[in-house]
Amino acid sequence: MLAEDLKRALYMAVIEGDPEKALGYARELLNTGFDVKQIVTDVLAPAMRVVGEMYERGEYFIADLIASAEAFKQVFDNVLKPRLSSSAASKGVVAVFGTVRGDIHELGKNIAKALFEAEGFEVIDLGVDVPPERFAEVVESRKARVVGLSALMTTTMVEQARVIEELKRRGLRERVIVVAGGAPVTEDWVRKIGADICGDDAFKALKKVKELLGVV
Q1: Would you say 96 and 142 are in contact if contact means Cβ atoms under 8 Å apart?
Q2: pTM, 2 dp
Q3: Which long-range contacts (CB under 8 A, 24 or more apart) does 164-172 make?
């Protein structure tokens, strides 16, 4: 099978929630010369985005979402993660990730979580619909160095700003690197709310976090 055919086959296997097929196609893609980043950004992320859209339109149900997420997880954990080089300097660094209050989308957060874990970070996943106070509580109790705020809707982006304000109120803001991510998030928005990194690309965000921590 040609590389383009394998990409399409992997894409469809994730959408259809078929882990076995997805694993096989992912292995074949790596053998054709595709790297981990290309597979995540060109195939897996777009596939999961489509799954999310189908769910919102009522074409997919919770069981379908779970099946697709499992196919994504199997490919990442068993095929892609072993190819990522983990940094010993990142081990033990706590990162707190969550989707902000009012938002239940997990795609971006889950991709970022997988990449950071593969790089050796201890990732605490707070899930979705997370209020500012919860982010701040966990940052404080776990002495986190990184906070990832995901918002996939323009209506919930303001919650990213509210998390940062809560961190400031508790005297925690200067302790952490704040990554604001999600489809509608831009560099201008990141500057406006006082975050540190735009998480529009999980690989670039990871690289910038490591640079700021001095663990490159």
Answers
A1: yes
A2: 0.76
A3: 164/193, 164/194, 164/195, 165/132, 166/132, 166/133, 166/135, 166/136, 167/135, 167/136, 167/139, 169/136, 170/136, 170/140, 172/136, 172/139, 172/140
pLDDT tens across the length of the chain (216 residues): 888 999 999 999 999 999 999 999 999 999 998 888 889 888 988 898 888 788 878 999 889 988 998 999 899 889 988 887 666 667 789 999 999 999 988 878 988 888 898 888 999 999 999 999 999 999 999 999 999 999 988 889 999 999 999 999 999 999 999 999 987 899 999 999 999 999 988 888 999 999 999 886
Domain 3-83 has CATH 1.10.287.630: no
Task: Return the ∠ at Cα 193 (arms to 187 and 195), rounded to 5°.
Answer: 65
CATH topology of domain 88-213: Rossmann fold (3.40.50)
Collapsed DSSP state (helix, strand, coil) of residue 33: coil
